[in-house]
Write a structure and sequence with these properties.
Length: 463
C-alpha cells in the first residue's frame, strides 16, 4: 500500500528554518535561507560545519562564513583557508535582512512542506519547496549520490531552484538523515524510492505541479535514468554521473591518474593490473582477491608511478589493511552492482536528458561516457551533453596545492543557469560560461515517443 503522512507546512519568510532532521541539540541556524538581493541576484545561505555558514550565488561563487560577532561574518574563498574579502551581516532573524558587502537583501518567502512518505518498504523523509504564489511551476526531484549525509540538511539546490520559480522535492536517502531503513546502493531499490518521491511531490504540489523530472548527481546518474525508464517523467538531468559501470569508472579513473601524472601507455597497462585486483575484491564482496592485490603491490610498489594511482575506490583498498578492508568494505559499498551496465536503459530511454560533466573529474572521468552519449544521440535518443572543462567531481572548479591535492573554489559559471533553462523547457542560451555543449544548438525538452501508461506501482526490487 502506498501511503504518506504530511508532517508540517512552513513558510520560509522572516522566521527561522527547521529541517526534519534538526533537533534541539543540532538546530538549523536561523540565518539559513534564500535571499533576494537589491542587485537582482539570489544568495543562498546554508548551514556548514562547526557553526559556520556557507554562501552561494547562482553564478557559482561561494565561500565559508565564520562569525565575527554581532551578526557580522567574514568569508573565505570556496573551501580554501584564504580570506576573499567578503563580509556578510545579518539583522535579527525576524526581520530577515542581509547585507553582502554593500548589497542589501531580504529573505524570500519560499513555501516549505515537510513530509514522511512510503518508499520501497521503508518510510522516507522528504520536503517540497515551492516559490510563493499559486502559479503552476516545474518541479525537480533531487536524487542523491552515495553520500551518507542528509539531503534535507545539505542540499542548497532545494532553495536555489525555488528562488527562481522552480519547485523542488528533496528527500533523505534510505538509511540517512531522518529516513528509515538501511543504507543501500542498490540502484533498482533507489530508483523505486525515487519513483515514490515523484508521486509524493506531485501529490503535495497538487495543481501547482507542471513539468516534473529528476536531477541526479554522481551515483544519481545511474539511478535517475532507471527510475525514468520504469515510470516516465518529463526530463532527467545527470550531473557528474556516468554511462559506464562502477568497475569501469574505477579503471577509467586510474587511466586518467596516469595521464595527469605524465605516464605513457606502457605504465597504464601496469596500473590497470591494480584495477583488476581491486575489482576482484569488490566483486567478491570483499572475500577474495587480497593475494592478487598484495602481489601487484610487491611488483610495482616501488615504481615512481605507483603513488599516483588513485582511481575511484582503488585508493581505499591500497591504503587499508586486509583486516580493516574485510570489516569496513561491505557496508561501504552496500548493494553496489559493480558491473551494472546503464546502456540498455539509456538506449531505450525516450525522456529528454541533460548530462553535465566535468572535464577534470578524477572520480568519474567522462570520456567513455561522452562517446556513449554521442552514439546514443546519433541513434535518436533525446540527449544533450555539456562539459565544463575545468570542473572536478561535484562540478567544482579548484586550485591545485603544492602537494598535488585539489581545493575547491567554486562551481562553474553557467552550470545552474543551464539546469534552470532545461527544467523550464527554455531554448539553449548563447553560452553557459565555459561549457562545451554536444547535441546541437537546441536541446529536446519533449519526449519523442508516445507516452506510455504509468505503472500502478514500481516493480518489486530484486534482492
Amino acid at each position: 500500500m502506498h501511503w504518506m503522512i504530511p508532517i508540517s507546512i512552513v513558510v520560509l519568510a522572516l522566521g527561522s528554518t527547521r529541517a526534519i532532521a534538526a533537533s534541539p541539540s543540532n538546530p538549523i541556524p536561523c540565518e539559513v535561507g534564500s535571499y533576494a538581493m537589491a542587485d537582482g541576484t539570489r544568495l543562498d545561505i546554508a548551514p556548514s560545519s562547526e557553526g559556520k555558514l556557507r554562501w552561494r550565488f547562482l553564478d557559482g561563487r561561494t565561500g565559508a562564513l565564520t562569525s565575527q560577532g554581532k551578526g557580522r561574518w567574514a568569508s573565505k574563498l570556496g573551501w580554501t583557508d584564504r580570506a576573499d574579502g567578503h563580509h556578510v551581516t545579518f539583522s535579527d532573524c525576524k526581520r530577515g535582512e542581509i547585507r553582502f558587502d554593500e548589497i542589501t537583501g531580504k529573505r524570500q518567502a519560499l513555501i516549505q512542506i515537510d513530509t514522511r512518505f512510503q518508499g520501497s518498504g521503508v518510510e522516507l523523509a522528504g520536503r517540497l519547496t515551492l516559490p510563493p504564489g499559486q502559479a503552476r511551476v516545474p518541479i525537480v526531484v533531487l536524487i542523491h549520490g552515495a553520500e551518507h549525509s542528509s539531503a534535507l540538511e545539505d542540499y542548497s539546490l532545494q532553495r536555489q531552484f525555488a528562488s527562481v520559480g522552480i519547485g523542488v522535492f528533496a528527500y533523505d536517502k534510505r538509511g540517512t538523515g531522518a529516513s528509515g531503513g538501511r543504507y543501500s546502493q542498490n540502484y533498482l531499490l533507489l530508483a523505486t524510492d525515487a519513483i515514490h518521491a515523484v508521486r509524493e511531490a506531485r501529490r503535495l504540489a497538487g495543481e501547482r505541479a507542471g513539468r516534473v523530472g529528476y536531477q541526479g548527481g554522481s551515483q544519481g546518474g545511474w539511478v535517475a535514468p532507471l527510475a525514468a525508464q520504469i515510470e516516465p517523467v518529463d526530463f532527467v538531468i545527470v550531473s557528474f554521473g556516468l554511462a559506464v559501470s562502477p568497475l569501469d569508472e574505477d579503471r577509467e579513473a586510474i587511466q586518467f591518474d596516469m595521464e595527469r601524472a605524465g605516464f605513457g601507455p606502457e605504465i597504464e597497462v601496469k596500473a590497470l593490473e591494480i584495477a583488476d585486483a581491486t575489482a576482484r575484491i569488490v566483486e567478491s564482496n570483499f572475500t577474495e582477491g587480497y593475494e592478487q592485490l598484495a602481489a601487484v603491490k610487491r611488483r610495482y610498489g616501488n615504481e615512481p608511478w605507483f603513488k599516483s594511482v588513485r582511481g575511484n575506490f582503488t585508493w581505499y583498498l591500497l591504503a587499508g589493511s586486509e583486516e580493516s578492508i574485510r570489516k569496513e568494505g561491505p557496508p561501504l559499498l552496500e548493494g553496489v552492482p559493480a558491473r551494472y551496465d546503464p546502456m540498455p536503459v539509456l538506449s531505450n530511454l525516450d525522456v529528454p536528458q541533460l548530462w553535465v560533466l566535468g572535464g577534470q573529474d578524477r572520480d568519474a572521468p567522462p570520456r567513455q561516457t561522452l562517446r556513449r552519449l554521442e552514439a546514443l544521440r546519433k541513434a535518436g535518443r533525446p540527449i544533450t551533453a555539456a562539459v565544463f572543462p575545468d570542473a572536478d567531481h561535484g562540478m567544482y572548479e579548484f586550485e591545485t596545492q603544492a602537494d598535488g591535492e585539489r581545493v575547491s573554489t567554486r562551481q562553474p559559471q553557467g552550470y545552474f543557469q543551464m539546469m534552470q533553462d532545461f527544467i523550464e523547457g527554455k531554448p539553449q542560451a548563447p553560452g553557459y560560461g565555459s561549457a562545451e555543449l554536444r547535441g546541437g544548438s537546441t536541446w529536446i525538452t519533449e519526449r519523442r515517443s508516445p507516452e506510455r501508461p504509468a505503472t500502478t506501482r514500481p516493480p518489486t526490487p530484486r534482492p
